[in-house]
């Protein structure tokens, strides 16, 4: 979408400085997949839209006070949208872009502030998990939970230099069942028994949704494992060097 078209769409020239910054940042997110914004970058964007450079210190304070943006936890000295405001912007203006990338989610099952921002592919899985849970797509959610569990386990083996223990002769990893067996009691990973005791439940919930002909998952199936799943994620994130 062209700068001039977007500026006209939101009547940018008539807005307050804070709202100008909000819409300019949203434009950059949609056009260039930029999700964290330094004040220097925002100031340069004001010029590209034909406005004078703002007082960046004042603008930053006003953006934070407006509760539209917050300090990013993953990129120092940058701002990012508060999820509820980004969702509203998507609802109001997202249709003006053909978007095959954005996943609307807001910590519905997994805490995105805690577990996102480490690896891009992990972020996408977590956002899909939250999105499917929010939309009552529990079989999809269960399969994604199983996949995330498998991914984090593999990263643990890689980080600790023991990936060969779960690698077959052809170079592929073992199936999840085999990875779980290798992880339980592994002296290098040293995963507490209170966590490994739940490994089979995490694997089984996804297996049922993926392979059973008549089974369909419900909200309770996901909720029943959610607390133990979060505890597992935190422990394995540490062992994988993600936090």
Label the CATH architecture of the largest domain. Up-down Bundle
Count of DSSP H/I helices: 12
Uncertain parts: none
Q: What is the fold-level CATH name, i.e. the topology of the largest domain? A: Four Helix Bundle (Hemerythrin (Met), subunit A)
Strand order of the largest sheet: 1-2
Strand portion? under 5%
Structural class call reads: mainly alpha
What does this protein look like?
The radius of gyration is 22 Å and the shape is elongated. Helix 3 packs across helix 4. The chain has a two-stranded antiparallel sheet with strand order 1-2. Strand 1 and strand 2 (79-81) form a beta hairpin. It is an all-alpha fold and 243 residues long. The protein has 2 domains: 3-96, Winged helix-like DNA-binding domain superfamily/Winged helix DNA-binding domain (Arc Repressor Mutant, subunit A); 112-239, Four Helix Bundle (Hemerythrin (Met), subunit A). The mean pLDDT is 94. The protein has helices at residues 3-9, 17-32, 39-48, 56-65, 83-93, 112-115, 120-134, 138-159, 176-183, 193-196, 199-211, 219-239, and strands at residues 69-71, 79-81.
What attributes does this structure have?
243 residues; two-stranded antiparallel ribbon; single chain; elongated; mainly alpha; 2 domains; 58% helix; Four Helix Bundle (Hemerythrin (Met), subunit A); Arc Repressor Mutant, subunit A
């Amino acid at each position: 979408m062209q700068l001039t078209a977007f500026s006209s769409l939101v009547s940018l020239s008539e807005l307050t400085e804070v709202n100008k910054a909000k819409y300019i940042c949203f434009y950059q997110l949609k056009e260039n997949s930029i999700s964290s914004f330094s004040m220097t970058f925002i100031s340069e964007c004001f010029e590209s839209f034909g406005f004078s450079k703002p007082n960046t210190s004042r603008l930053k304070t006003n953006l934070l006070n407006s509760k539209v943006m917050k300090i990013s936890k993953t990129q120092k000295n940058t701002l990012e949208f508060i999820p509820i405001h980004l969702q509203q912007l998507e609802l109001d203006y997202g249709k003006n872009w053909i978007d095959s990338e954005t996943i609307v989610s807001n910590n519905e099952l997994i805490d995105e502030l805690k577990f996102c921002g480490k690896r891009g592919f992990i972020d996408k899985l977590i956002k899909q998990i939250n999105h499917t849970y929010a939309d009552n797509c529990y079989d999809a959610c269960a399969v994604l939970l199983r996949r995330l569990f498998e991914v984090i386990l593999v990263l643990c083996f890689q980080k600790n230099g023991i990936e060969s223990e779960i690698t077959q002769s052809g170079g592929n990893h073992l199936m999840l069942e085999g990875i779980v067996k290798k992880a339980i009691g592994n002296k290098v990973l040293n995963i507490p028994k209170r966590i490994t005791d739940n490994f089979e439940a995490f694997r089984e919930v996804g297996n049922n949704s993926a392979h059973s002909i008549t089974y369909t998952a419900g909200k309770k199936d996901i909720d029943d494992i959610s607390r133990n799943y979060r505890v597992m994620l935190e422990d394995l994130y540490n062992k994988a060097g993600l936090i």
